[in-house]
Structure formats: structure tokens, C-alpha cells
Amino acid sequence: MAIKPLLWLGSSRRAVRAFPKDTRQVVGHELFQVQQGLAPSSWKPMPTVGAGAIELRVDMGGAFRVLYVAKFEEGICVLHAFQKRTRRTAEVDIELDRKRLRDLEQQRRRRR
């Protein structure tokens, strides 16, 4: 299977680059697994964001999250990356993910 490219939406790439170095390395490895069609070691579906949204979970000196969608043939679309400060994902993060996924789906429809 071919490796799918990563498509970074909004500030998601900048957010991952701001993670601590060891966390960044783990996120990079996990995203590479996803690019190869494999599941990351810790994840959960995020139906509150939209169909196909997945939360990659890295807990290293804090709770770091990367939300992505892997269902499109053009690549793995990274919607958002952030560090959680509470047990619940903040509504502002969920809304940002929903908006980016909605915008992505609208762009894809226009291209057809």
C-alpha cells in the first residue's frame, strides 16, 4: 500500500511543532503509522466532530491530541492539534475541528 501524504489544515502543523520534542517524535511516528494504513497505538473515534474524525492520543507529561481524517484518497487530513488541560475536550476545540472538517468537505465537493 502506498503511503498517503499528510495534509495539514489551519494551524495544526504549527501546533504539533510547538509540542515538546519527545511528544513530537511520538506524534510523528503515530502519524506515519496512519499514513501506512495502520491504526495508531492510542486513538478514539470522534463522532461529535464528524464522520471519520479520529483523535490520536499521546500522554507524555501532559495530554496531547491530534485530530485527523483518513477517509479521503488524497491523504490524511490533520484537522487540529492541541494539549488538553482538563479531562473533557474543550468545546472550542471541538467546534474548530467541526469547522475545518466542514470546510474540507465543501472544498472537496466543489472540486468534483
What does this entry look like structurally?
With 112 residues, the protein is α+β, with helices and mostly antiparallel strands. The chain has a single domain (6-111), classed as RelE-like (YaeB-like fold). It is 38% helix and 26% strand. The chain contains 3 helices and 5 strands; from the N terminus they run E-H-H-E-E-E-E-H. It has helices at residues 12-17, 21-35, 91-111, and strands at 6-8, 43-45, 53-59, 63-69, 76-84. Strands 1-5-4-3-2 form a 5-stranded mixed sheet, sandwiched between helices. The model has no long low-confidence stretch (mean pLDDT 94).
CATH superfamily: RelE-like
What share of the residues lie within helices? 25-40%
Shape: globular
Query: How many domains in all?
Result: 1
Pick out the low-confidence regions: none
Please specify the SSE layout and strand pairing.
Layout: E1 6-8, H1 12-17, H2 21-35, E2 43-45, E3 53-59, E4 63-69, E5 76-84, H3 91-111
Parallel strand pairs: 1-5
Antiparallel strand pairs: 2-3, 3-4, 4-5
